[in-house]
Amino acid sequence: MTNKYQNIAIYCLIVLLPTLIGVLYSLYQSADEEYHNRQEDTYWIASVHQKSWDQFISETFTMLEILSVSIRTDQSADQLENLLQEAHRMDPRYGGIYLLNKNGTIITGSNSYLENADLSETEYIKEITKTKDIIISNKEEKLINGQKVIGVGKPIFSENGEIDAILIAHLRSDYMENIMKVLTPNTSLALLNAEEELIFDIQSKKEFSQEKLSVPLESLPWELEVKMPSKDTDHIYKQVMTSLAKYLIITHIIFVFIQYFMLKRQAQQEKKENELQKLELVGTLAASTAHEIRNPLTGIKGLVQLLSEKYTNSTDQYYFSVINDEINRINEIVSEFLILGKPTAQKNEIMDLKQIIKTLDPLIRSEALMNRISYQCELPNQPIYVVGTNDQMKQVILNITKNAFESMEAGGSLTIKLSAKNSKCQIKIIDTGMGISEQAIKKIFQPFYTSKDMGTGLGLVVCRRIIESFGGEIFITSKENYGTQVDIFLPKKETPSDV
After folding, report:
1. pTM for the whole thing?
2. How far, in Å, CA of 179 to CA of 223, rounded?
3. Sign (positive or negative) of CA dihedral 174, 176, 177, 181
4. Radius of gyration for the alpha carbons in the chain, expressed in angstroms and rounded
5. Distance CA 93, CA 150 (A)
6. pLDDT tens digit string along 295-321?
7. Residue 284, Cβ neighbours under 10 Å: how many?
């Protein structure tokens, strides 16, 4: 049940939570991107129409400037009419071009829509008279032919600088509206004057949001106001669904990998627990039978010693020595069983690794000389203290060096190095023996596994058991025909009193 809830928690943490966060982020990003796209499209539409209107107004100002230079008040009405008609004919965007006297009465024009009309009360005509400058009307007008126009006027001055006449042009706003509809048919926009009053607007049947984008005209204090299209929820939905699928795939892949590594770790843990259970079983067996085995062995050994004193024949003595060796061998196996079963039976104490290795140095050196092996020991200047048991630590070092000697039957070299770094110390034992195969090195810490004819398969298991009881670790690396290296790491104590 615990594993079930653990898997659910991991699934929520690795799959559901990141997917939810990713989808929310994708939703925000998609909505933001969609909004900016709509905003850019709206701004592009507004810019197109803004430039079109600015160009039209600028060209109108230029045309009025040219006409004002060309017109002379002493010209006949027919000549003035022909001139205005010629100018009007060149551009269909105008509803008419007219010449007014200084009081605002029509003198002549390119058509008869305003014949004899009095425009003196028109707001933009009054503004021209007042400011003596080019003025454009703030309102849309409707001519008798149904055309919608916006008036633009420019004063014509006499030699003494007084207004002699007024030249006006009617900009066809309906013509411009039609052009705008053709250019951007699915657009809803409005043209506003300086007082933000509506001059004209274009409404589309397409649905639009309440958001608007305003772009000012460069030539006038007017602005174009364009509505932004409605939010494209389908596009956002598709992007979010795509992101959801992507996040689900990625997170499930990660979840599967995590599950794989967890199962692998669980298998390794179970394997380790099985090995520990084996050791505990062996230990329990050893604890209950070791003394029972040793008691008869002691009696047998005593009787063999008495018989060896009675029967002094060389053949008999040989047999007695073999019996004694086997009894000693049984005792060693029993001792190893006891360590497996209860490695911390002895009381731990502060011990100096440097001193322990120095104590063992004569034994190891003499063994090396006997086996024609070059021996080297590298120790630090300062003592290195750890918590453990002297005898068991010596047993570990002697056991490993014994294995090293047995692997170098034809000679070689053995090196022992002791060093300390930060909170740990390291014992490194290196030999140049026959090495261990990759298949064998995976099994060397399994109980009863041995490659020796007379081995018990408990030596290295006992060593690891002892080192782990000291809070340390032991690692073995080897390559066939090149040698073996054993690394032992133990927690370091700064001073003998630092227990």
Report:
1. 0.52
2. 18
3. positive
4. 53
5. 11
6. 787 778 788 888 888 887 888 788 888
7. 13
